[in-house]
Amino acid sequence: MKLWEIAHSRTGDKGNISNLSLIAYDIKDFELLKEKVTPEVVKEWFKDIVKGEVVRYELPQLGALNFVMYDALGGGVTRSLSLDKHGKGLSSYLLDIDI
Amino acid sequence: MKTIRIATGAGYAGDRLEPALEAMEKGNIDYISFECLAERTIAIAQQAKLKDPSKGYNGLLEYRMEKVLPLAKEKGIKVITNMGAANPERAAEVCVQIAEAYGITGLKIAAVTGDDVADILDKYDDTIVWETKAPLKELEGIVSANVYMGSEGIVEALRQGADVVITGRVADPAIFMAPIIYEFGWEMDDWDRLGKGTQLGHLLECGAQVTGGYYSEPGKKDVPHPERLGFPIAEVSEDGSFFITKVEGSGGVVDVHTCTEQLLYEIHDPSSYITPDVIADFSKTTFEETSKDVVQVGGATGRERPDTLKVSIGYLDCFIGEGYMSYGGPGAYERARLAADIVLKRLELRGIAIDELKVDILGHDSIYWNSERAPVPSAPEYRLRVAGRTKDRTSASRIAEEVEALYTNGPAGGCGAVKSVQEIVSVASILIDRKDVTPHVVIKEV
Question: Which residue among A19, B221, B249, B398 sits deepest, i.e. has the most Cβ atoms within 10 Å of its Cβ?
């Protein structure tokens, strides 16, 4: 099953840091997300893009996780050579993870 | 119990205007705030001001204010915006001219300045810049330095009777929280309330991103009438509790999921959202749908504000040259790859000085770089993109030109060439002492 089946996501950017929310459609799936989508899984998934560490924060009352990915935007939004300088599309890529 | 209603008028510099006017006409609102300054917008505006001292404010200011000011006067709605960018005083003068042209009188228009700290940068020569990890004095090509101010300048303008408040760089949530502080007389060290007000500002600052914009996923997250999304309206009480809604009958949706996506947008540690006014804690946030398109928000708190303020320094960094060429039909991927190889070899043969180069095949790896992904040969078309960073404009042009030259020199069937060269103003950050920053309010009356 893809994460896309049970969760949604939005990307934010600050300088060279990208953050990805991961939000369960049904809060009952939060524990599954917490168990399967570890910072290590996310770091491995984005290994070609994210050069720094990945930190995870948990908001169980909202069924949400927040991943903060450091050194993740090709040097920063203003100077990145990426077509997607803000990394806005990374949220959809996160949802492609199989669990 | 007194409540006030605040709407978003814009969530970014170029946002739609109709939803702002709709909120003013039908939203029963007291305030409308237009957030129009991204991280480096002000550096670019500063360059415009250097060329022409009467510019340097948001390019859509006139377009917006010609519609907004008459409505604001008619309905008694106060307007707050950071559309002043690098030139709030000139932007206020432009508003005065618009008001006069439309025969509006009895309006106080305030400019809040003090965010331009270029003159005091010398004091911070030895301060380490976050991005370069080197002392500030080693940063060349500085064009602007603007500090993120808090709510106090806007609050002061409102206390002086301003109906329209125009700022340069302030923290985004501040343009939404300032009217709450003013209306309810909140103390500037009431951290708990300021945490709640900052949460309201954070949820509203990106406009439709909390009402169904940047949200649709057909079949899973369907949004009614995305072509006429309503902008958010927050109704807040003296204790800082509030709900978010939108004009009845407008497009879009406000529910727990739209609010959760926006809550975490551009947030790192949810328990420490650092602003000039307060360190807000969103980690215990609760959302409750009390009726259709109405979400009650709770659980935010706050801690004492930091002694330092963040400065964004714009500097001339580099040039980026970029070229595109498409390939379709059988063998399209292989021809696009060959085209990339040709461009790379040409740049090497000509000895073009390039700091960093990136090759993308759109349709394959341009958004999701993955070195292990195999091509899908069945895709009907691919688009090559070559982008490179250089120290000078000429070298950047060479990159773009070599892609275009694939027309007569490259693989068969190349089409749709596009090229561009951009001078890049980047942003670097330092922290400065809060004591070095004082907001100033200038009021003009019509």
Answer: A19
Question: What domains can be seen in chain A, in order of their start residue?
Answer: 3-94 (3.30.70)
Same domain, B109 and B214: yes
Residues B383 and B333 in one domain: yes
Residue A43 touches partner B, C-beta closer than 8 Å? no
Same domain (yes/no): B153, B24: yes
Q: Look up the domain containing B363 and give its range.
A: 313-429
Whether chain B has a CB inside 8 Å of the CB on A76: the answer is yes
Mark yes or no for CB contact B265/A62 under 8 Å.
no
Last residue of a domain, one of B285, B306, B327: B306
> Is residue B50 domain-shared with residue B178, that is, in the same domain?
yes
Contact in structure between A76 and A33 (CB atoms under 8 Å) = no
Domain boundary among B275, B306, B337: B306
A71 and A84 Cβ atoms separated by less than 8 Å: no
In a domain, B402, yes or no: yes
From residue B96, give the alpha-carbon distance in Å to each of B82, B86, B88, B179. 16, 18, 12, 22
Nearest residue in chain A measured CA to CA from B425: A78
Q: Of B217, B266, B367, which is closest to A12 when you measure between CB atoms? A: B266
Question: Which one, of B349, B328, B347, lies nearest residue B414 by Cα?
Answer: B328
CB contact under 8 A, B264 and A78: no
Mutate to test the interface with B, among A46, A66, A68 (most CBs of B within 10 A): A66
Same domain membership, residue B91 and residue B220: yes
Domain assignment present for residue B207? The answer is yes
Q: How many CB pairs under 8 A join A and B?
A: 115
Torsion over CA: B45, B198, B311, B90 (sign): positive
- The model's pLDDT over B99-117, given as tens digits with 9 standing for 90+, comes to 999 999 999 999 999 999 9
Residue B268 pLDDT exceeds 90 = yes
* Contact residues, chain B, for A68 at CB < 8 Å: 268-269
Q: What is the pLDDT of residues B287-298, one digit of tens each?
A: 999 999 999 999
Q: Predicted confidence band at B35 (pLDDT cuts at 50, 70, 90)?
A: very high
How confident is the model over B189-222, as pLDDT tens digits? 999 999 999 999 999 999 999 999 999 999 999 9
Contact state of A61 with B362 under an 8 Å Cβ cutoff: no
Same-domain check for residues B79 and B188: yes
Q: Quick one: average pLDDT of B179-191?
A: 98
B397 part of a folded domain:
yes
Using left for φ > 0, alpha for ψ between -120 and 50, and beta otherwise, residue B275 falls in beta
Q: What is the pLDDT of residue B372?
A: 75
Q: In the prediction, which pLDDT does A93 show?
A: 95
B382 interaction partners in chain A (CB closer than 8 Å): none
Which residues of chain A fall below pLDDT 50?
A: none
Q: Do B131 and A16 touch (CB under 8 A)?
A: yes
Q: How far apart are CA B342 and CA B386, in angstroms?
A: 11
Domain membership flag for residue B155 = yes
pLDDT tier for residue B274 given thresholds of 50, 70 and 90: very high
